[in-house]
Specification:
alpha+beta, six-stranded antiparallel beta sheet, four-stranded mixed beta sheet, 4 helices, 52% strand, elongated
Length: 182
């Protein structure tokens, strides 16, 4: 009985820690017939842990965003129509003695990791191209975000000699029926 209670506690602890942040204020705007821009931000982002991991200056911090467009079906499995992957990498460049944020298109340099906290927590103007969404009530977006970094700190932010990999995940379903802006 004690083992069962302990295992339930551990599983709840790991499930709750893996969803440390959430996706909030999702907005999509139509640019042209088949092009859209997506905006959202990450609430309760573990910024202190990320900054401390960056100050270690060894490994990059990876923020991966997957966006999938689905068509709803009543009795069958929903059909995935499109899939987009965006990422942000933050790290330390010893040659320039500066921290950087890289999104695959541009690399921005900062003197302190605290300076780009706002850039890590916001996803702005993500370009999406969909087929014509006639009857948008039949479509939804599934937004998944994963944060991955390595640290010497335990869950209470105390230093340990072991390096541990930290992965936080969250996802949100975004119904296109009521939110698609024209």
């Amino acid at each position: 009985m004690k083992n069962l209670i302990f295992s339930l506690f551990l599983s709840l602890f790991f499930i709750s820690s893996s969803f440390a942040f959430s996706i909030e204020e999702v907005h999509i705007s139509k640019v042209s017939e088949k092009r859209y821009l997506l905006f959202f931000y990450l609430k309760d982002f573990p910024l202190q842990e990320v900054i401390l991991a960056l100050k270690r200056q060894k490994e990059e911090v990876l923020l991966l965003c997957e966006i999938e467009l689905y068509r709803k079906y009543l009795f069958f499995r929903d059909e995935r129509l499109e899939r987009y992957v965006f990422f942000k990498k933050a790290g330390y460049d010893p040659l320039r003695n500066q921290y950087y944020l890289d999104d695959g298109k541009i690399r921005i340099f900062f003197n302190h990791p605290e300076d780009f906290a706002n850039f890590l927590t916001k996803f702005e103007s993500l370009p999406l191209s969909f087929p014509s969404l006639a009857g948008s009530e039949d479509y939804y977006l599934l937004i998944k975000v994963q944060l991955k970094f390595y640290t010497h700190l335990d869950a209470k932010l105390r230093y340990t000699s072991k390096i541990r990999e930290v992965v936080y995940k969250t996802e949100k379903t975004y119904d296109l029926q009521k939110k698609l802006l024209y």
